[in-house]
From TrEMBL:
Protein name stated in the entry: methionine--tRNA ligase
Record GO terms (molecular function): ATP binding; methionine-tRNA ligase activity
InterPro entries documented for this protein: aa-tRNA-synth_I_CS (IPR001412), Anticodon_Met (IPR041872), Met-tRNA_ligase_1 (IPR023458), Met-tRNA_synth (IPR014758), Methionyl/Leucyl_tRNA_Synth (IPR015413), MetRS_core (IPR033911), MetRS_Zn (IPR029038), Rossmann-like_a/b/a_fold (IPR014729)
Entry keywords, A to Z: Aminoacyl-tRNA synthetase, ATP-binding, Cytoplasm, Ligase, Nucleotide-binding, Protein biosynthesis
Biased composition (Basic and acidic residues): 788-807
Source organism: Orbilia ellipsospora
Compartments where found: Cytoplasm
Domain Methionyl-tRNA synthetase anticodon-binding: 656-794
């Protein structure tokens, strides 16, 4: 047995030629017989040949190659089944070769032999099946497909065989190995090779360029790994950022939909419109949150950052978030750019120094940053508020406001001491900030929350705000501005938004072409509502204060909160689905993406609910979109041998005008909603287009009877339907990129742009690929399993009560231990007073 075989396939093989028929037989045989030891090689020879150099074997007869592959392959094909195969050898030698031009006679004899030998019965595939199928596919099905209608048994066997895995894989492999052109058209071969070199980074097509008959200028533009996306004059240049996630936790579904996933949809939409678009994000790694988490995990802040940066990358990669660059803020670029902004604000008179009183922990001898202080919220009486914010009522706080404050590190009661900090004069910058805001909020059509929150800050009147902190982990305060700040760093919420700029600088040295190019670049920023003031007030004011020509935010897209089964996500209580949990369920990322985006809390809080999640998959994705695509692709493969039928004239029938008008109306609405960054509405319109496609097939009764009775009408319905599927792939791409790629593979077409008007871009005779299932049914029984596993079975009240009970028990224990320790000290003092030498060594 040969251990290594080389199969030489001709590179130029026009459809219907002997060379293509040979290539098809060889490729089908390799797949059918699982001849894994075969290596495919392109060849300039005119026929297929098989070489086994170690054994000194070279086979040049294609049918002999098929039988040889059957004998060495891993698939079951026994010698006892050689009798019918011998009959086919005789048929091939006596009938097929001499009368290849008399197809009607050949097909008639083939049908008789098919019945006589029992070849059509189920069982292991044989060489005879490979030879007959390939002959019919390339000769009868292509040169004269109508002849098969006169031989119903042969036609039924052929179509059933066409849907087998080995047949479809063989067809695709043969198509990919050859360049199918008109015989002698060397120029076309060269042109096809040039186009093939320009395929996307993620190839989604099968077959060859010449197999594709497509409209002009519909392919999306993709950048290679070494290419940098930069603004281009005269083009629509879009810069997109999503709020930088902290590196002190695992992102949950609310975090994901609130920033990175929403931004990803808009980025993919822009790219599907062939806008010049750059999407950057990264982890926010400086500040108190990092220090406190590092203390909890007993690691250094840098070690913590490395751990969580990698974790975030993994989560976002699984969710198929298509960042152009995902970076981090602990970089030299961050230090350089942040310090430059600080120094320019100082030089322009927008910084001031002031002494303030701050909480100080005498036990560990250090000033307490906001997040190092915990206590009772003065506004809602929540007993576990942080020094910067109350998680229960959402109020921004000053640690000095907390009732009964305590040090997070050792639970000691802090004291008040004076310290110096640098402040940004927001009050002096307010006129510039307000003028810019009024212009941007109108031209950029901000989300309602972004507009409302910013207006409330401006109406209340901006006050100077401290932008330094007593920490060691952060961007150092530049020595050129202030002395005595060696142990202080820039406040994280002054520093963090600058991270967008520094992360871009780690992507390209030409970062200023994006960030200091306001005339040619529009900046879109995505975040949860709690992050709005830092993006709409503090960062823009800092930009204005430098007097540099900054690219400033054009549109702010905000979300409210995504709740989990009626309550909040909580890692500590094991309530809710976090990024790594989604993967554990086995549900594909596209289903998660679609559900989250369809539930996006754009105008109010929304709920994640397991039953809704399952029903959204089953009744919408599977029933509407998946079934529409699968039904039509399989129909085209079965009835038209995988070729788009000639619908050119019949599709012009006025009876189809209303359908075309409906699709164009829905397409126009989809584009308008995405241009306005109304992301949730886009999911509704996507499903409306799919449902209109289902209705179209239903109205025109696409079935076997209509195919036989009204061939012209059926061709039009299939042609229009396949083109609608191609449009759907583009509309899916922002929301479900893997689904879009699957549809493109099934249509044997590249990822395409989102047009303004629906055109029929899959032309007659375009060869489609193999059918794939887009979605699978989810059993409703999984609802209880998942709810139990991820904490949704507990009510919010029960979970909060358990948490409060645990906290009270911990505090009671700490208090008891403190009293015991205090009593012990008192006893020691009393003993020492009576017996001064009691503690000595005597």
């Amino acid at each position: 047995m040969a251990t290594s075989l080389k199969l030489n396939i001709p590179t130029t093989a026009p459809r219907g030629s002997s060379a293509f028929a040979q290539a098809l037989k060889a490729c089908c045989a390799v797949n059918a017989f699982q001849a894994d030891q075969v290596q495919f090689c392109k060849s300039t020879d005119e026929s297929v040949s098989l070489e086994a150099s170690k054994e000194g074997i070279r086979i040049i007869d294609i049918n002999a190659i098929v039988r040889y592959l059957a004998s060495i392959g891993g698939a079951p094909w026994k010698s006892t089944e050689r009798a019918p195969d011998d009959a086919w050898i005789e048929w091939e030698e006596i009938v097929l070769r001499p009368r290849i031009s008399e197809l009607a006679t050949v097909l008639g004899l083939a049908e008789q032999l098919l019945v006589k030998t029992g070849l059509a019965k189920s069982g292991p595939v044989s060489p005879a099946q490979i030879i007959l199928f390939s002959t019919l596919y390339d000769s009868a099905a292509t040169a004269a497909p109508g002849l098969l209608d006169k031989h119903p048994q042969l036609k039924a066997w052929f179509r059933a065989t066409l849907e087998s895995d080995w047949a479809m894989e063989g067809i695709q492999k043969a198509a990919s190995m050859t360049t199918v052109v008109d015989a002698g058209s060397a120029k076309a071969v060269k042109s096809a090779a040039v186009v093939a070199d320009k395929l996307p980074k993620k190839p989604v097509v099968v077959g060859t360029v010449a197999d594709r008959k497509l409209g002009e200028g519909i392919e999306m533009k993709f950048y290679g790994p070494d290419e940098k996306i930069l603004p281009e004059s005269g083009k629509r240049n879009i810069l997109i950022t999503s709020a930088l996630p902290y590196v002190n936790n695992v992102p949950h579904l609310g975090n994901i939909i609130g920033s990175v996933l929403s931004a990803d949809v808009y980025s993919r939409y822009c790219k599907a419109r062939n806008y010049n678009c750059l999407y950057v994000c990264g982890t926010d790694e400086y500040g108190t949150a990092t220090e406190t988490k590092a203390l909890e995990e007993k690691v250094t802040p840098q070690e913590l950052c490395n751990k969580y940066n990698a974790l975030h990358r993994q989560v976002y990669e699984w969710f198929n978030i298509g960042f152009d660059h995902f970076g981090r803020t602990t970089t030299p670029e961050q230090t350089e750019i942040a310090q430059d902004i600080f120094v320019k604000l100082f030089q322009n008179g927008y910084l001031t120094e002031d002494s303030i009183t701050q909480l100080y922990c005498e036990k560990h001898d250090g000033f307490l940053a906001d997040r190092y202080v915990e206590g009772t919220c003065p506004k809602c009486a929540y007993d576990d508020a942080r020094g910067d914010q109350c998680d229960k009522c959402g109020s921004l706080l000053d640690p000095m406001e907390l009732i009964n404050p305590r040090c997070k590190l050792d639970s000691q009661t802090p004291v008040v001491r004076p310290t110096k900090h640098v402040y940004l004069k927001l009050d002096e910058l307010q006129p510039q900030e307000e003028a810019w805001f009024n212009k941007s909020v109108t031209e950029g059509a901000w989300s309602r929350n972004g507009k409302t929150i910013t207006e409330s800050w401006l109406k209340e009147g901006l006050q100077k705000r401290a932008i330094t902190r007593d920490l060691s982990w952060g961007t150092p305060v530049p020595a050129a501005a202030y002395e005595g700040y060696e142990k202080k760093v820039l406040y994280v919420w002054f520093d963090a938004c600058i991270g967008y700029v520094s992360i871009t600088a780690t992507y390209t040295k030409d970062w200023e072409k994006w960030w200091k190019n306001p005339e040619n670049v529009k900046l879109y920023q995505f975040m949860g509502k709690d992050n709005v003031p830092f993006h709409s007030v503090i960062f823009p004011s800092s930009q204005l204060g430098t007097k540099d020509p900054w690219t400033m935010v054009h549109h702010i897209s905000t979300t409210e909160y995504l709740q989990y089964e009626g309550g909040k996500f909580s890692k500590s209580r094991n309530v809710g689905v976090f990024g790594n949990n989604a993967q554990d369920t086995g549900i594909p990322p596209d289903v998660w993406r679609f559900y989250l985006l369809a539930s996006r809390p754009e105008t109010g809080d929304s709920q994640f609910n397991w039953r809704d999640f399952i029903l959204k998959n089953n009744s919408e994705l599977l029933a509407r979109l998946g079934n529409f695509v699968n039904r039509l692709v399989k129909f085209a493969i079965a009835k038209y041998e995988g070729l788009v039928p000639d619908y050119t004239d019949s599709a012009k029938d006025p009876a189809f005008d209303a359908f075309k008008a409906d699709i164009n109306k829905l397409l126009k609405e989809y584009v308008e909603e995405l241009e306005a960054v109304h992301i949730r509405n886009g999911t509704d319109l996507l499903m409306h287009v799919a449902q209109r496609g289902n209705q179209f097939l239903q109205d025109n009764k696409l079935d076997n009877a209509t195919f036989a009775a009204e061939p012209a009408k059926t061709a039009a319905v299939v042609g229009l339907g396949l083109n609608l599927i191609y449009l759907l792939s583009a509309l899916c791409y922002p929301y479900m990129p893997a689904t879009a790629e699957s549809i493109a593979r099934q249509l044997n077409a590249p990822l395409r742009t989102i047009p303004d008007t629906w055109e029929l871009d899959l032309k007659p005779s375009h060869r489609i690929g193999k059918a794939e299932y887009l979605f699978s049914m989810i059993d409703l029984k999984k609802e209880d399993e998942w709810r139990g596993k991820y904490g949704g079975d507990k009510s919010v009240e029960e979970a909060l009560k358990e948490e409060e009970k645990k906290k009270k028990a911990d505090k009671k224990k700490q208090k008891k231990e403190a009293m015991k320790a205090k009593a012990g000290e008192a006893v020691k003092d009393a003993v020492a007073a009576v017996l001064p030498d009691a503690g000595s060594s005597k």
